[in-house]
User: Which sequence fits this backbone?
């Protein structure tokens, strides 16, 4: 015992269903403030751990090699003798 065959055009039925489900009342509810704050905290922890452990992640890449001349500490020059 099955469903009797439909005399409706499948494409038209699908288009009608898509237009009905496109209504805003069928949108998922917005994320709560608590959920957004917890997600932000988790992202920050991941960034810090990634940079500390060198995991990369979404943080800045770790530099390799010697620092550029502008980042090197300057040596104190001895006072002139004379």
Assistant:
């Amino acid at each position: 015992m099955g469903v009797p065959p439909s005399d409706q055009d499948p494409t038209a039925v699908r288009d009608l269903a898509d237009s009905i489900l496109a209504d805003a009342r069928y949108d998922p509810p917005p994320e709560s403030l608590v959920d957004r704050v917890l997600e932000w905290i988790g992202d920050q922890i991941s960034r810090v751990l990634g940079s500390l452990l060198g995991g990369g992640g979404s943080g800045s890449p770790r530099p390799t090699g010697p620092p550029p001349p502008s980042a090197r500490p300057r040596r104190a020059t001895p006072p002139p003798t004379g």
Remarks:
- The two ends are 112 Å apart (CA to CA).
- The chain is about 40% helix and 0% strand.
- The CA atoms of residues 12 and 18 lie 10 Å apart.
- The chain has a mean pLDDT of 81.
